[in-house]
Amino acid sequence: MSAKAALWAAFVFLPLLVGAALWPGLSGDFLFDDYANLPALGAFGPIDGWQPLLLYLTSGIADPLGRPLAMASFLIDAQGWPAAPGPFLRTNVVIHGLNAVLVALLGARLLRAEAGPLRWAPFVAAALWALHPMQGTTALYIVQRHALLSATFTLLGLLAFIALWRAAPERRLIFAALYLMAGAAAVACKLNGLLLPVLALALLPLLRRDSTPHGLPGRWVVALAAGPAIGLGLLLALQVPGAMAGAEQFRDFSLAGRLLAQPGVLVGYLADLITIAPHSGDLMFNPPAVPDGLADPRFWAPASLLGGALLAALTLGHRAPVLASASLFYLGGHLIEAGPVNLELAFAHRNYLPSALLFLPVAVGLARLPVAAALRAAIGIGAVAVVALVLHGEAQLWGQPRLLAEVWAQRSPASERAQVNAATWDLWYEDPARGLARLASWRESMASSTQLALTLLDLECAMGAVSTEVRAAVPQAIRGDKRGLEISLSAIDRHDQRYARCSESAPTAGTMMEAAAAN
Q: What's the CA gap between 460 and 440, in Å, rounded?
């Protein structure tokens, strides 16, 4: 087998390796935001014609555009609701495997190494990225199909941009059209697709090394990358007023607090990537700290680190172009979700695409080690095996939902969401006493948390009677709920069936409805 054939065989092997590592997770279940997005599959009846299809595709709630292309992809797995989680998970894993190949191809096109040990660097880098346990939360969390597909089309757009950079003048329009089409498809999956021009600019330290006789004139770069990037900056600036109001109304932190916390969040992602932390893909985690101000070391220390990395990438890119492009790609990939938007402080799936090139400098450094080729190969294979085994272990957890909830609760004792999630599984498995014991230390804050108050109500009701304090806390929590009344309205809608066994001590549906109306 020739060297080139062996390399392409490795790229074919990559998605198989990803699938094997994630295989145990295919027995998992729907989680968290899955229940907010996927029921749209049955909201308009069976999707068996153009009208229900159009209604479904325009029912998305996640972005101003509704993410119609990502919503359409769920029709591969089911055309109604409720549905089984297995097909959704299998499709997610297939897309993640495809993305691993695209990341490898992107690295290969950037390095342009056709001979020597460097030709294996893109494969090793893509394997380390795709098999890292942090990516498990994106592949095995069904609703993150949005992030997976947006990454797919963004990577295709970047490959089109590289081809455009190296194309002869008469072929530039073809690749420019492919670049724009990929960008539009990425945006139709998730608004992060708007970052395509920013990520294209991040590749310039590597692309500028090209010895191609054509090159891309500056006006093309401005039109296809810098121009849209400036437009994105203006769009983010326009988000600030709404984000300020939204943060105050729906979150426990201000917009300023969110922005102060993001440098620490981004450095935390990097620490988890470096240490191959098994918990890095947890959906439930201890909430990140919000710094008190600019003088707080929880802000200026990580901000100084990231600022130094940005400055070095911009000024020393000609000396270390691989590291410069990887750094700019990482920072640029977080511009939206680490910016002035009304989102929670952190989630591992936000690091999915931004981290795609971070292992390329590692793989290139390995390929250039002045040691025997066999030793370099052993180090690379060993590193890939380690991350694959850690991911495989995490996938085994994701395939056992109750055990997963228990582990998350143990790993994140300061997370109310993790404790409530585990207590809900205790309730489903008819062990309400355990759930009540789990939430005993959280009872003081139940009047300010609808999810906590309603979970305690369910647990006590399962025991036969509701305490006076929980009975009083439920309407108070509903009245002050900042995050939307969907959970409360669901409980009210099924009140008679849900609280039949404790009807004398539970708050009445009327009391709960009055509290909701007063919110």
A: 12
CA 197 – CA 255 distance, rounded (Å): 26
pLDDT in tens, 1-24: 455 666 677 778 899 999 999 999
- For residues 166 and 109, give the distance between their C-alpha atoms in angstroms, rounded to a whole number: 11
Q: What backbone torsions phi and psi does residue 248 show, to the nearest 5 degrees?
A: -70, -35
Best CA proximity match to 196, nearest among 208, 188, 184: 184
CA gap 151, 243 in Å, rounded:
25
Residue 159 CB contacts under 8 Å (≥ 6 apart), including other chains:
102, 105, 106, 109
Three-class secondary structure assignment of 319-366: CCHHHHHHHHHHHHHCCCCCCCCCCCCCCHHHHCCCCCCCCHHHHHHH
Report the C-alpha gap between 193 and 186 in whole angstroms: 4
Q: Which residues pair with 45 in a beta bridge?
A: 43
**For the segment 76-99, what is each residue's pLDDT rounded down to a tens digit?**
999 888 899 999 999 999 999 999
List, for residues 226-247, the tens digit of each pLDDT value. Answer: 777 777 777 666 665 655 555 5
C-alpha torsion sign, points 236, 242, 244, 248: negative
pLDDT at 12: 84
> Measured on CA atoms in the order 271, 257, 336, 60, is the torsion positive or negative?
positive
Question: Which amino acid, residue 366?
Answer: L
Q: How far is CA 227 from the centre of its chain?
A: 27
181, two tokens: 């089409």
Q: 369 φ, ψ to 5°? A: -60, 135
Q: Are 481 and 512 in contact (CB under 8 A)?
A: no
Contact 251, 342 (CB under 8 A): yes
- Look up residue 212 and give its two tokens: 């191609």
Calculate the CA 511 to chain-centre distance.
Answer: 38
The amino acid sitting at 96 is: H
pTM for the model stands at: 0.92
Greatest Cα pair distance, the chain, in angstroms, is 83
Residues 274 and 330: beta-carbon distance below 8 Å: no
Three-state DSSP string of 482-495: CCCCHHHHHHHHCH
**Distance, CA of 417 to CA of 158 (rounded, Å):** 37
**Euclidean distance between CA atoms 93 and 430, whole angstroms:** 33
Model confidence at 514, in pLDDT bands (50, 70, 90)? confident
Give the residue from 163, 173, 44 showing the smallest Cα distance to 109: 163
Q: How many CA atoms lie within 13 A of 55 on its CB side?
A: 14
Phi, psi of 167 (to 5 degrees): -80, 150
Cα–Cα distances in angstroms (integers) from residue 251 to residues 175, 238, 343, 476, in the given order: 43, 20, 8, 18
Residue with tokens 């996927």: 38
What distance in Å separates the CA atoms of residue 479 and residue 153, rounded to the nearest whole number?
A: 43
Tell me which residue of 88, 76, 186, 103 sits closest to 139, measured CA to CA.
88
User: Contact, 202 vs 302, CB < 8 A?
Assistant: no
Task: Choose among 118, 162, 121, 146: nearest CA to 353.
Answer: 146
